[in-house]
């Protein structure tokens, strides 16, 4: 956790090559910014191929999973949806 406030949080996530985060969702709006590596971000609305420098915003409540295609690091920002 890099920053934690009532209205948002910023988390540094690292993933090993070939690792996966299974389906989950949050009540927050999320922003994913890839700092290093290559990830596939999956949602019911489509898949997003994100490389270093890639950015994705996702509305609250959307089911998603993440696959790391190589050793990767990204910032995950969670913002309260009702603010």
Which properties best describe this structure?
83 residues; mainly beta; Jelly Rolls; 5-stranded antiparallel β-sheet; 4-stranded antiparallel β-sheet; 0% helix; globular
Commentary on this structure:
This protein is mainly beta and 83 residues long. The protein has a single domain, classed as Jelly Rolls (Sandwich), CATH 2.60.120. The chain has no helices and nine strands. The protein has strands spanning 3-4, 8-15, 20-24, 28-36, 38-43, 46-51, 55-58, 64-68, 72-80. The strands form two sheets. It has a five-stranded antiparallel beta sheet, with no helix packed on it. The chain starts with a strand and ends with a strand.
Secondary structure: elements and pairs:
Layout: E1 3-4, E2 8-15, E3 20-24, E4 28-36, E5 38-43, E6 46-51, E7 55-58, E8 64-68, E9 72-80
Antiparallel strand pairs: 1-2, 2-9, 3-8, 4-7, 4-9, 5-6, 5-8
């Amino acid at each position: 956790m890099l920053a934690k406030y009532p209205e948002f949080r910023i988390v540094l996530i690292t993933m090993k090559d070939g690792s996966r985060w299974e389906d989950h969702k949050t009540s927050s709006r999320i922003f994913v910014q890839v700092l290093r590596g290559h990830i596939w971000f999956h949602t019911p609305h489509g898949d997003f191929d994100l490389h270093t420098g890639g950015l994705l915003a996702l509305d609250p409540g959307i089911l998603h999973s993440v696959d790391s295609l190589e050793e990767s690091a990204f910032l995950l920002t969670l913002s309260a949806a009702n603010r």
